[in-house]
Amino acid sequence: MIPKAVIFDCDGVVVDSEGPTFAMLGQDLALHSLPLSVPQMEQLFLGGTVAGAFTKAREMGASLPDDWVSDFYNRLYARLGEGTPLISGILTVLDALDAAGIPYAIGSNGSARKMEVTLGQHAGLTARFKGHIYSAYSVAAPKPAPDLYLHAARALGVQPADCVVVEDSAAGAQAARSAGMRCMGYAPHGAGEGLRAVGATVFTDMADLPALLGL
Predict the structure, then answer these.
(1) How many CB atoms lie within 10 A of CB 166?
(2) Would you tell me the crossing angle of helices 18-31 and 38-45 to the nearest 10 degrees?
(3) Is 52 in contact with 60 (CB distance < 8 Å)?
(4) Residue 22 pLDDT > 90, yes or no?
(5) Where are the beta strands (DSSP E) in the chain?
(6) Are residues 68 and 118 in the same domain?
(7) How many angstroms separate the CA atoms of 165 and 170, rounded?
(8) Residue from 174, 202, 200, 177 nearest 188 by CA
(9) Which of 81, 98, 116 delimits the end of a domain?
(10) What is each CA distance from 167 to 32, 58, 78, 112, 199, in whole angstroms?
């Protein structure tokens, strides 16, 4: 069934920002007595918030300072501002949605400022979303709660059951499921077990998404 609206996660789905983020996070955690590999960090933190990572890391023994969240964000904005590429194939997906007259939005657990930095590097990209770029910091609860995706659906004027969410994390896929939305799980490296476990339809190449959506 062709959706009436599509809601995208941002990091790892629209912009390729997760590599630098996890690199910085790994360095910080190692400096504060919690060395973790990238796969471990992905398992623990992918799809969450920086504040959530702070809380969980402290529970695991990291000696992060009280002001770490704001400090990390400031350093991350500077790093991402040096260059954050788009996910290969995402513009083709947006072109197909525009051609079909299907509206779309972004719903991210990241901050609005982070999306301004990453999306704003690409001329005309922010304008394509026509104001429908939403951060979990503006709703009651972040993913895996459904609040953000339900907010985006209301703003688009589309019923949740008629929306498709595009996600790369199990937390995001769970949010879609709790919101009553279908989820397409983007797993470019083939590790989509966590997405499948919460009901997402997994795909590995963004170029395949228009056909998967019936466009």
Answers:
(1) 28
(2) 100
(3) no
(4) no
(5) 5-8, 104-108, 133-135, 163-167, 182-186, 201-203
(6) no
(7) 12
(8) 202
(9) 81
(10) 30, 27, 25, 18, 12
DSSP string for residues in 98-132 = HHHT--EEEEESS-HHHHHHHHTTSTTHHHHTTT-
Residue owning tokens 């499921």: 177
Token pair for 92: 């083709």
Query: 């969450």: which residue's tokens?
Result: 48
Tokens of 155: 């703003």
- pLDDT tens digits along 66-100: 999 999 999 999 999 999 999 999 999 999 999 99
Question: Two tokens at 85?
Answer: 């590429």
Same domain, 44 and 116: no
- Give the tokens for residue 45: 């933190």
When divided into structural domains, the chain yields a total of 2
Q: What is the per-residue pLDDT across 108-157, written as a single tens digit (0 to 9) for each?
A: 999 999 999 999 999 999 999 999 999 999 999 999 999 999 999 999 99
